[in-house]
Amino acid sequence: MVAIFVLALFLFILLVDLIVLRIQGKSHPAFEPALSQYDYLVHDGNVIHIPSNLFFSKGHTWLKKNKNGLMEIGIDPFGSTALGTLSILKCAEVGEELKRGGMIFEGSYGNKTVKFLSPVNGIVKSVNPGIIGKKISNPYESWGVQLVSNDSPENRDLFFSGSDALNWIKNEFSKLKYFIDDNSPIVEFVGETMYDGGSLSNDVVSLLLDQSINDFEKEFLSL
Amino acid sequence: MLNETGILFDVTLCEGCGACYDMCKEVNNLPETNDDYLKDHLSDNTFTVVEEYGEIYTRKLCMHCNEPACVSVCLVGAIKKSSTGAVVYDADKCIGCRYCMQACPHSIPRYEWGTTKPRIRKCNLCDDRVKAGKLPGCVEACPTEAAIFGKMDELIEIAKNRLKSDPDKYYQHIYGLEEAGGGHVLIISPVPFEQLGYVSKLTSEPMPEFTMRAMEKIPSVAIGGGLFLSAMFWLTKRKNELAKEKKSTNGKENI
Amino acid sequence: MKINDILKPTFWKVVSVIIVTMGLFSTYYRFSLGLGLTTNLHDSVPWGLWIGFDFIGVGLAAAGFTIAATVHIFHIHKYEPLVRPAILTAFLGYSVVVCLLVVDLGRPENFWHPLVMWNIHSVMFEITWCLICYTTVLILEFAPVVLEKFKIKAPIKYLKIISIPVVIAGVIFSTLHQSSFGSLYLIVPGKLHPLWYSSLLPVHFYISCIAAGLSMIIFESFLIARAFTKKDGFHHTELKMDILSGASFAVLIALIAGFLLKIYDFIDNGKLPLLTVPSTETYLFYLEILIGTLVPIFLLSYKKLIEDKKWMYLTSICVISGLVLNRLNVSITGLAASSGVNYFPSFDEISITMMLVVLAIFAFRLIAKNFAVFVSNESENSVNENGTAKSKQIILSERYE
Ligand code: SF4
Ligand code: SF4
User: Fold this and answer.
1) For residues A48 and C196, which has the higher predicted lDDT (pLDDT)?
2) B52 and B160: one domain?
3) Closest CB to C106 among B43, B110, B111
4) CB atoms within 10 A of CB A53
5) Does the residue B33 lie in any domain?
6) How many whole angstroms separate alpha carbon A113 and alpha carbon A93?
7) Cβ neighbours of C238 in A, within 8 Å
8) Which of C53, C56, C392 is the closest to A182 by Cβ?
9) Which end of chain A offers a freer environment for a tag, N or C, measured as fewer CB atoms within 10 Å?
10) CATH number (domain holding residue B38)
11) Is there an atom of ligand 1 within 6 Å of B106 CB?
């Protein structure tokens, strides 16, 4: 009897706590709805899909060498979801001679604009007209630019692939979590939305300080 | 053991008069606890009781074990074995953990729950009286000599003789001779002892043995554990260092 | 934090104040009226809720030595962030236990007697000494945190030098007294129900405390994540899922080991038929095994579930509940039949116990707030790398101080 009583009391207190949190409109860390970004940390490769024929640059673009020698370049899953869903505003223009580190895409998360840098040297052969002004839903389908390039994506110092790429992207997501925590002026608010499971992925960018977006570029989009 | 004394209680001779009960209260200065002594039970103010089982009367009191559980568990040594064999208690040492009550196989020790300076209470075989050459109170009071006092080996002899000379009258067992390692109170009766409310399924092994088997492993656990942990400390440290060295040399090769 | 913030009533603050007030009254009554009037203990039930709760408290504080050993002796540095919370938990857990013991002692004014009056044959004596030594070890292990705070550098150097022997001593003392809590009952083979009585009782206690202690740390991580928000200036209190998953795995191993030992014990001593006897004891035994062992083993053996925080949380609650049931079954349920009475704790017993638990939680908060209990090397590095944390600190202090 005593054993049951103590156990029931213990469970009862936990339950009351959950109810209190619910009344306050918060949720318990164990039961907060998962945020899509942070799921990447928890689950394995089944969520972040890393196609084996792609290479990833540290500026969060992916590269694919086509059979005809052209190089396709697009935005990777991190780039397309980090601070909300990315929409592409501009691409490099056809015929332009791109240098590694030059601007290849300009996109926006909400009202904040970010630049993606070209991972290789080359001449722009064609641009995918279908991506401009749209939100990226499937990062691997929407290639943005085709280049004629002599650079090899197999250079392991510059590009990731396979499980290296997976680990690196996971790591980037966990860095992102700290980054968001550290760059929100309205700390309290972020704290709550995170625990509420509010649609952080779309709102988070509006909470960031203006200069933070530069930090974000420096931290995550530089090569 | 040879010079130790104890009590032999013969259930067949007891008439349930309650003289021992009264005398015990008197020599220990205990207040009255029940109008009808046959309805009383052991308590902080009652060290022995006379119990009625149909026609038969028997007594309950501390068995003064040879290797008492209460003595072995008391962490401050407040319960001790006296030179007479009695198990005696020193309230000034006691911290009141009540482990002795929990441990006693006969559930004898009682506690002064009602006070803020409580003591453990139980029969002490009138140790002071015995040392002064007198009989324990209950033995002195017993009009039928159902309880007799004497040297342990003599008492055992008497008990055995009684069982042998009158096998029909007695259930062939001396309670307290082997129960929980034996003690200084022996009981013989006409019926099996569980019918008289005695704890019957006790091992002949003294209770402290059960603990000793675990306690004696402590030094080896302490020393073995210490050695094992130290060894693991050096081993894993070395392993980490090796791993680090390997990493740094690998790194150099790559460059 | 302004004084207004502290005084602002929240649900749990109000509840805590009520519990502590009731507890203080009960404590006063307990010491002025004695045990008999304030507890439901009596001659047939000398040990009640308080002693049972001591077993629980000590069992749940076991992470203090397992984590310290993992990190400092086995050099698995991944678990470093858990060390300080674990040691603090252990320390506070033991404080609760010691306070409860003192409340439970009939003559609390004599509590120092075991220091000078020895009976080395007593398990209780061994436990007392191990408790004293281990609490000292915990203080030594936690001292650097306090000294750091007050910038007293000199003793830290010496503490560093002795730190490894101290950790080893801590592990040994813990091993000894955790198992000795089981040994306490070795002397009552006739009284304790055979479902729980076993000559392996010390080993059962030891293994189950490892599983439960780690589960407690997992459970506590959730409590911490729930209670310490950024708002209060805590930065490293997020759930670290990879670390917790690792700990869950250790829990799984300990649970399986404990279960196998139980099976061996039952077969070896021919106790299997007892499982079919319908009685309160049997049902509670089943409940204990089900909640505390089988369900967690089942949940933990799915990799998916280990990595899901919801299930990890529920599993830790299961294991903790299992330990609670087990310890109370041994100390109360298992002895009920032989004592012949049905013991249920009195109001004072319950309120004093709850008060001590609330005070321990409060102390945890207070210490965590003022000392660097939550530090993580990993995030310190990342702070240095990006330098952004500094700006944030300033923002925080502007807003909240
Ligand atoms: S009967 Fe109980 S109280 Fe008396 S000596 Fe034996 S163990 Fe101690
Ligand atoms: S209650 Fe007193 S006599 Fe009994 S074991 Fe504890 S300290 Fe010893």
Assistant:
1) C196
2) yes
3) B111
4) 7
5) yes
6) 18
7) 177
8) C392
9) C
10) 3.30.70.20
11) yes
Residue pair B105/B211 in contact by the 8 Å Cβ criterion: no
**Per-residue pLDDT tens over the stretch C73-88:** 888 888 888 888 899 9
What does the pLDDT read at residue C230? 56
**Which H or E run contains B49?**
strand B49-53
Whether B112 and B190 map to the same domain: the answer is: yes
C307: chain A residues, CB-CB within 8 Å: 42-43
Q: What is the CATH number of domain A38-163?
A: 2.40.50.100
**CB atoms C176 and B222 under 8 Å:** yes
Cβ contact, residue pair A29, C239, below 8 Å? yes
C366 CB-contact burial (10 Å; exposed 0-12 / middle 13-18 / buried 19+): exposed
Q: Give Cβ neighbours of residue A215 (< 8 Å, ≥ 6 apart).
A: A179, A183, C386, C388
* Same-domain check for residues B230 and B165: no
C96-115 average pLDDT score: 90
Cα of B75 vs centre of ligand 2, distance in Å, is: 7
Per the document, the length of chain B is 255
- The C-alpha atoms of residue B187 and residue B192 are separated, in whole angstroms, by 11
Distance C129 CA to ligand 1 centre (A): 25
Segments forming the whole domain that contains residue B232: 217-254
Q: Quick check: is C207 in a domain? A: yes
Pick from C61, C68, C175: which is nearest to B218 by CA?
C175
Q: Please report the DSSP string for C213-247 in residue order.
A: HHHHHHHHHHHHHHH--GGGT--S-S--HHHHHHH
Quick one: what percent of chain B has pLDDT higher than 90? 53
What was the pLDDT predicted at A68? 77
- Whichever domain contains C179, its CATH number is 1.20.1630.10
Q: Which chain C residue has the Cα nearest residue A20?
A: C11
Q: What is the ipTM of this complex?
A: 0.86
Same domain? For B127 and B70 the reply is yes
In this prediction, residue B68 has a pLDDT band, given cuts at 50, 70 and 90, of: very high
Cβ pair A195, A29 in contact under 8 A? yes
Distance CA A56, CA A17 (A): 45
Spatial distance between the Cα atoms of A145 and A64, rounded to a whole number of angstroms: 11
- Asked if residue C392 is part of any domain, the answer here is no
- What Å distances lie between residue C389 and C231, C372, C396, CA to CA? 15, 17, 10
A87-to-A21, A106, A218 alpha-carbon distances in Å:
36, 9, 19
Total domain count, chain C: 1
What are the tokens at C187?
């002397």
Instruction: Say if C2 falls within a structural domain.
Output: no
DSSP of B117-167: S--EE---TTHHHHHTTPPPHHHHH-TT-SEEEEEHHHHHHHHHHHHHH-T
CB A123 within 8 A of CB A150: no
> What does the pLDDT average to over C371-387?
51
Asked, for residue C33, whether it belongs to a domain, the answer is no
| Contact indicator for C221, C269 with CB cutoff of 8 Å | no
* Range C193-204 average pLDDT: 91
If asked whether residues B169 and B99 sit together in one domain, one would say: yes
Burial A150-184 (b: 16+ CB within 10 A, else e): ebebeeeebbbbeeebbeebbebbbebebbbbbbb
Smallest Cα–Cα separation from C124: which of B109, B89, B120, B72? B72
Structure tokens at C42: 């009596």
Q: Is residue B212 in some structural domain?
A: no
The whole-chain average pLDDT of chain B stands at: 89
User: The tokens of A217 are what?
Assistant: 């570029």
Angle CA A131–A137–A143, to nearest 5: 45
**Is the pTM value of this prediction over 0.90?**
no
- State yes or no: pLDDT of A37 exceeds 50: no
- Which uninterrupted H or E stretch holds A9? helix A2-23
Residue C209 has pLDDT above 50, yes or no: yes
Q: Whole domain around residue C121: which residue ranges?
A: 40-345
**Helix and strand numbers, DSSP H then E, in chain B:** 8, 9
